[in-house]
Amino acid sequence: MMPVWVAAALLAGLFQTWRTALQQRLRGQMSVNAAAVVRYLYGVPVGMVLVALYLLLAGGSLSNPSWLYLLYCALGGLGQIFGTNLLIMSFGQRGFAVGTAYSKTEAVQAAFIALIFLGESFTPLAWAGIAVSVAGTLHLTLAGRVRSWREVLAATAQPSAVHGLGAGLAFALCAIAIRAATRELDGPDATLRALETLVVINMLQTLMQGGWLALREPASLPMLFRTWRSSAQVGALSACGSACWFTGFAHAPVALVRAVGQVEILFTLLFSRFFLKERMSRSDVAGALTVVAGVVLVLLGR
After folding, report:
1. How far is CA 283 from the centre of its chain?
2. pTM: predicted TM-score of the whole model, two decimal places
3. How many domains are contained in the chain?
4. Neighbour-count burial of 221, counting CB atoms closer than 10 A to its CB (0-12 exposed, 13-18 middle, 19+ buried)
5. Residue 227 in contact with residue 23, Cβ under 8 Å?
6. Which among 252, 250, 110 has a CA at the least distance from the CA of 182?
7. Could you give the CA distance from residue 138 to residue 136 in angstroms, rounded to a whole number?
């Protein structure tokens, strides 16, 4: 039987790809900050529904949050906000591919951070799987844009790469904070703790980035509600994706969940092949197989 955290990571990659595709439509209707706020604003009620359904089907009771738990949730929410903004900044440097590629080093960064702060250690095979999956993702993103390792190193000095690495670090810290938050709750059900944490973090993110939006871009506020049909879809997919990520983090080390979650880029390739009818190159196939090989090594190492 497939472990819960593996299924959660695979579903998270699928939901994230779907949400990203829908969110691109909102980018033409509202600002970057407003498009980010809809993820949290419309994600809160969906998260509440997920909690209610889980309680109905699996039973259990909600935990009593502590101040330390709320602090971890706030740090996790801020990490996601800063990571998203840094990733967008990397796109602004005309380096979409480079920024995206370096942000995908998040799994490796998370592994080292978890080793230092949470004491999570991995087998050599799992470390190899993390490295291989990240290498496959880098290859898929940078293939055709750099021709040698020298050019890869040169690209690292570009602002887009620096912002991408910063985004990866922010996302890694976000994931570590989320895992710490789920472990801080006293409930026995890890999945329920993850869903509770999703609702709390989305609420905090709505207050934090929504407050910033009200302060700096008050004219954008009406668009949050005028676009409710498309915004609600983005919020629902975002909440479902985050629910899967959080569930994975609650059941397994962050680095392993993120490494398996690299299959997100495979879903993107499949979408382009079967829905957009775009042809895959040999380089794309090689990169995809490398990502799969990395995920297999992670699972064997686990």
Report:
1. 25
2. 0.83
3. 1
4. middle
5. no
6. 250
7. 5
> Which among 89, 283, 69, 253 is positioned nearest to 170, based on CA atoms?
89
Domain that holds residue 259: 4-301
DSSP string for the chain: ---HHHHHHHHHHHHHHHHHHHHHHHHTTS-HHHHHHHHHHTHHHHHHHHHHHHHHHH--------HHHHHHHHHHHHHHHHHHHHHHHHHHTT-HHHHHHHHTTHHHHHHHHHHHHT-----HHHHHHHHHHHHHHHHHHHBTTB-SHHHHHHHHTSHHHHHHHHHHHHHHHHHHHHHHHHHHS--S-HHHHHHHHHHHHHHHHHHHHHHHHHHH-GGGHHHHHHTHHHHHHHHHHHHHHHHHHHHHHHHS-HHHHHHHGGGHHHHHHHHHHHTS-PPPPHHHHHHHHHHHHHHHHHHHH-
Output the tens digit of pLDDT for each of the chain's 302 residues.
778 988 999 899 888 777 766 666 666 677 778 878 888 999 999 999 999 999 999 988 898 899 999 999 999 999 999 987 787 676 554 455 555 666 777 777 888 887 777 777 778 888 888 888 777 776 766 665 555 556 655 555 566 667 777 888 898 899 999 999 999 998 889 999 999 999 999 999 999 999 999 999 998 888 888 888 888 888 899 899 999 999 999 999 888 888 888 777 777 667 666 655 666 667 766 766 777 777 777 777 76
